[in-house]
Structures are given as structure tokens and as C-alpha cells.
Amino acid sequence: MSATAPAPGQMPPGQPPADAAVVAAAEQAEAERRAQIAARWSDACLAAALFALDPVAAGGINVRALPGPVRDLWLEFLRELLPPDEPFRRVPLHIADGRLLGGLDLAATLHAGRPVAERGLLAEADGGVVLLAMAERVARSTAAHLSAALDTQEVLVERDGITARTPTRFGVIALDEGANDEEQVPTTLKDRFAILLDLNDIPYNAAMPPDEDAASIQRARRRLPGVSVPEAMLEAICGTALALGVESLRASLFAQRIACAAAALGGRDVVEMDDVSAAARLVFAPRATRIPMPDPPEDQQPEEPPPPEENQDDEQQDDQTPEQDIDKPLEDVVLESAQAAIPDNLLAMLKMGALRSRSHSSGKSGASQSGSLRGRPAGTRRGEPGAGARLAVIDTLRAAAPWQRLRRAEREQQARLGSGGSDVLVEVRQDDFRITRYKQRSETTTIFVVDASGSAALHRLAEAKGAVELLLADCYVRRDRVAMVAFRGPGAELLLPPTRSLVRAKRSLAGLPGGGGTPLACGIDAAVELADGVQRRGGTPVVVLLTDGRANVSREGIGGRAQATEDALASARAFRVADLKALVVDMSPRPRPDAEKLAHEMGAVYLPLPHADAAALSGAVQAVA
């Protein structure tokens, strides 16, 4: 009998059926991934259309994406939807307050001999759009001015002898180019933006042309003022916000506006469920702080029927049933639509939220320090040049310009009285002198305080060494220093002074033995002493304590768990008084309340990582620093 080939769709002889199942599962996963990417791009195009329809009502749109063809294509699509006659202004990263808000035009003032006001960029953008480049690095003053203008819809200028209020209404496109989760647009701005987009991980071949065009946007603009929102839709919007943990009231207002814009774009005069679902995906999903849990099962009804009031109860239930059948499915549908757009790593992001909330440097190392000698220019102040302070010539002339007419009249009067007075073009007096202020970041020193006692010391030391090496590898970019203190036996030892040298760190860490008692109080005291020295040199110390929190050696080097625990808590309270940033990493195989109590007394962040590796420790340290 001759062998026959397998029929199509059948498994060849000898091949296990598991291979076909694996291939089918991989193809299904790939299809789901492509569908998810297509849905994200479709929502991004819809967000661009809704923002172009009414930029002022939307407030702004935050686009998180690195520079690339996908972001350029999305921006090009948005520019095509905006009317060509509306202003479109680009805000540079380090724009001066005078150019942003307006103020005194120095050249025109010196030429005319009288104060001449200059129109600011925000006033020029009235009725249009402002593009904020590199929004994750925007200065706090610029973010505050933009937030105030979005709230009041006017620009208030009170500087250089000029006071003016200029009405302006505009929308903001913030380009967020943050490379990691620590680099974020200021919260004051993001809270005033309706839509938060993330275009990362969208391939260029998935960026298909959208369906909307400029003509459809113009038709929707004419229809938008007549769009109404039923009360049931408002309840669905508010219920979805509560279910997803969105606490800001601005988000609910923005969701209502986006739903109205979606209805107008779809040619409807009344907001429907699809419009609310789109608003939930664009407004609520990126702001979600929790994932809703399914409702618990309803309690079982009693076996015996209720007495005579059963009929009345049944009638009331019959009256309420239609409303519940209408409201509950509507809110569930909107909530499911928002959940589908929630990022997959939401839980991981929320887990590290407590660490990031303590970071005030927006991804940069060290605390900011102001001075008049070196650093990045940060405005001017009144003062005289000298002792290293530099004269700000332009700001000095700007301060003197509004007073030239009075000073010219004073000179003419002095000339008539014969008391002198010279004919000068611009008279600068001592009160007009302005010197430049500078701001610089102090370098961060991460101090590892490692419990080197006991049988598990080798594992903790290995993890600490890996974290030190990872941080040192990034020192040339972040300009950080790393130090290490180990405590075991009778006391603590400075194993590695603050350094950036990776070779020196490896040599110092290589020969440290483990074992002995746990003098926890000595380790904390050594960390406070080393951190105080770092602060005296102008640095910013961050202490990372790796321990299980169980002390058994006192400050005097004498064994005894009770006295050792009391000394450790006393040292922890002294650490808290020193007001230092700290992270307590509980390295126990099973976390116990000892380390958590120690972290509470120190005022530190508690992080139980029984199986932490070097990468996890490095990420946690950078989040705190």
C-alpha cells in the first residue's frame, strides 16, 4: 500500500498536535496585538479631530511620544484639520516671561523715549493653538503662566511699569518626549488638558489615514452649540469617573465636552452612548488610578414570602426595574470601553506611585540651588555687580526705560537752575541695576547601608553590589555619587566613600565578608553622619537601607535584642529629625513588621522586596532620588 499525503487541515503523521496549538495561539496573540494597535491609532486620530473641533473647550492635549515619523504624521493630520486662518504659535522651551506674557518693548521704548508695550505670545495665540515643545522639561514659571491663562482666559501683565489685562482663548498641544516614567509634564498642566495620548510603540505601518477632513470639522463646529447631553449620559460619565478612581472634577467636565464634540462630529444633536464611550477612553482611561472589581453576587432571597406588604414592595420594584435596566447597562458599557483603553502596566505604575510622588526633580538628580555665580540663568534681581555677580544689561535698561521722561524733565529743571545736568540718551541710576540669578542642580549621593550579618548577607551584598554598579554606569549622565556602609558584628564600617569610580567601587566591595550580629543603630548613625557631610559640601544625600529590621547588637556593641531594638528606633527618630530622603528595603524572605516599623520611624519609603535584583533596586533608588 502506498503512502498518501495528509489532507489539507489535517496533522501530518508523526507530528504532535501541540505544535499546531502553539502556532494557533501565537497567531491569535499577534492578531490581538495588531487589533489593539489599530484601536489606539484610531483613538489618536479621533482625539486630533475632537481637539481641532474645539481647542478652547478641550484645554489641551498631551501627546507622549518620542520624535519620529508617527508623531510627525499625527501632527500633520492635526494641522490639516485646524482652520488655516487661526493662529498657531510654538512656545520654545526656555522662553522668557516677557515674550510669553508681554511687557516692555525695550528697543521701541529707547527709540520713542516713552514706555511701549509688547504683545506676548499667549495674546497672539488668541482663538488658536499653542504648541509646547519638550513639555516634560518646561519651567515651573511657564507652566504656571499657561495654567493661569487656561483658567482665566486672559493674560495679566504687571511688570516693567506696565499693567494690562488681555483676553485670550487658546488650546495647548504639549509634546511629551520623556524617555522614562520619571519625566512627566507638570501635573498643573496635565490636569487642565482633556486628552492624554500615548503614541509610543505604534509602528509607522499601522498609522493609516483617518476618515475626517477639514470640511467635516467645519460642519461639526456649526453643529456643536446645539448639542445637548441627557441626564442619563451625565450620570454615566460621573459613575465611570468614580469607578476608575478619577478624583479631578475637571476630568468629568472635559469628558462631557469631548462627548458633545464627538456627537457633533458624528452629525448628532444629542449625545449618545458611543460618544460617552469615546470620551471615557480618551479622558478617563489615562487617568485611572484603579481597576474596577466586579460586583459581588446578590444575597439570596428569604425562602418564606414577606407578610402582607409584599404586593406593595412588588409594585415598587416593578416601578424601579425599568430605570435600573436602562442606567446600569449604560454605565457598564461606558466602563468596559474605558477599561479596554487602560494601559496594561497600570498596576505596576500605581505600585511605584508612592516612590515617584516623593521625587521633586522631574528625573534630574539633586535639589535645585539658587545663587549668583554659576549655573543656568534663572531671572534677575535688584543688586549691584561685584563679588562675582554679573550685571544683566538688558534687564537694567528695561528697569530704567520707564523713568526716562521724568529724569529728562528733572535734568532740564536742574539745567535751568544752573545746578548741572548733562544731556544723556539713557540715564541709569543705582536703583536700576539688575544682576543675573543662576540655578543649578546639586549632585546626588546615594548611600547604601547594608546589613552584612547572618547567613543571608552574601545575597544582600550581591544585590547591593549590582545596584551600585548600575547606578555608577549612569553617573556620567546623572552626575551622581555612590557610597556604601556595611554594619555587622560590633559596629558599622564605611566601605566605600562617595565616588563615581566603578573600578574603585568593585575593588572595595569585593572582599567584604558577612556574618555576625546586627548593630542596626550603628548603621543608621553612620548613615546620618555621612549624609550630613554630603549636605555640608552642597550635595543631596539619599539613603538606601537594606535590612530585615531585626537588631540584636546595641550601640555599645553588646548583644541583647531588647536594648538593640530600642537603640535602633532611637536612631531612626534622629534620622527623621535630620529630614533625609530614605528608602528601607526589606530583604527578608518573608517580610515582617520590624522593617516596616523602622521605616515609619525614619520617615522613609518602605519597599518589601524579598527577591529583589539589582535592576529593581536601581529603579527604586532613582524613583526616590
What does this structure look like?
There is one protein chain. With 625 residues, this protein is of the alpha/beta class. The protein contains 24 helices and 18 strands. The strands form five sheets. It has a six-stranded mixed β-sheet, sandwiched between helices.
Profile the largest sheet: 6 strands, mixed
The termini sit apart by 77 Å
Could you say which structural class the secondary elements and strand pairing correspond to? alpha/beta
Give the helix level as a range of percent: 40-55%
Q: What is the strand tally? A: 18
Helical region count?
A: 24
What is the residue-averaged pLDDT? 77
Beta-strand proportion: 15-25%
Topology (SSEs and partners):
Layout: H1 17-53, H2 55-58, E1 60-64, H3 69-81, E2 88-91, H4 97-101, E3 102-104, H5 106-112, E4 117-119, H6 121-124, E5 129-132, H7 140-152, E6 154-159, E7 162-167, E8 171-176, H8 187-190, E9 195-198, H9 214-223, H10 231-243, H11 249-265, H12 273-284, H13 310-340, H14 346-351, H15 353-357, E10 368-371, E11 376-382, H16 393-400, H17 404-416, E12 434-441, E13 444-451, H18 457-473, H19 475-478, E14 481-488, E15 491-499, H20 502-510, H21 520-536, E16 540-547, H22 561-577, E17 581-586, H23 593-602, E18 605-608, H24 614-624
Parallel strand pairs: 1-8, 1-9, 2-5, 5-8, 13-14, 13-16, 16-17, 17-18
Antiparallel strand pairs: 3-4, 6-7, 10-12, 11-12, 14-15
Give a quick rundown of the structure.
By secondary structure, the chain is α/β, with parallel strands linked by helices.
